[in-house]
Each structure stands twice: as structure tokens, then as C-alpha cells.
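Reply to dn_fold:

You asked what the input looked like. This is it:
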Amino acid sequence: MLEEYLQQFLQHLRYERNVSAHTLRNYSSDLEL
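and this is what came back:
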């Protein structure tokens, strides 16, 4: 369940906040996905 919320958060960052691929990769790494 937590992983689902984290994936939604990353999608929010990507599509609504328009963050870079590097930022998404680093967030994923930090959150251990």
C-alpha cells in the first residue's frame, strides 16, 4: 500500500510538477523503490 502511494507521488512530480528525470530517479532512490 505504501509503495502505491509513493508511485502516485512520483507521478505527481513527473506530470504536475514537471520535475526532471534526474530528480525522479533520485527521489525513487531515496525512497528505495
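The radius of gyration is 9 Å.
Hope that clears it up.
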